[in-house]
UniProtKB/TrEMBL annotation:
Family: Belongs to the HNH nuclease family.
The keyword NAD appears for this protein: no
UniProt keywords, alphabetically: Endonuclease, Hydrolase, Nuclease
Annotated protein name in UniProt: Putative HNH nuclease YajD
Organism of this sequence: Mammaliicoccus vitulinus
Pfam families linked to this entry: HNH
Amino acid sequence: MNTDYNDIKNRKAFYKSKQWRMIRLRVLKRDNYECVNCRKEGKVTLNRFDKHKTLDVDHIKELETHPELRYDLDNLQTLCIWCHNKKHNRYQKKINKKRWTDERWD
Ligand SMILES: [Zn+2]
């Protein structure tokens, strides 16, 4: 049962799974369909009545590095797509920078 979530195929399968969809709904409900990051900053992104999906459920500790926490409600939070992208871009930038530095010194 050791799934490698660095593999995009496994990540896709995970996000499509029935269990994830159920957990995802529980997290959205728990967080009142609000982005926890925006709420911290005093903004409220409420989308309960919005048919267009602008909320994502995010793994606080990444799926790739902490697969054992993938269904752990304490490791999940509701983020709006903007906050989620921000988090993701930051992560990507770090990786790119590192790779670039590595190439430079190779
Ligand atoms: Zn947000």
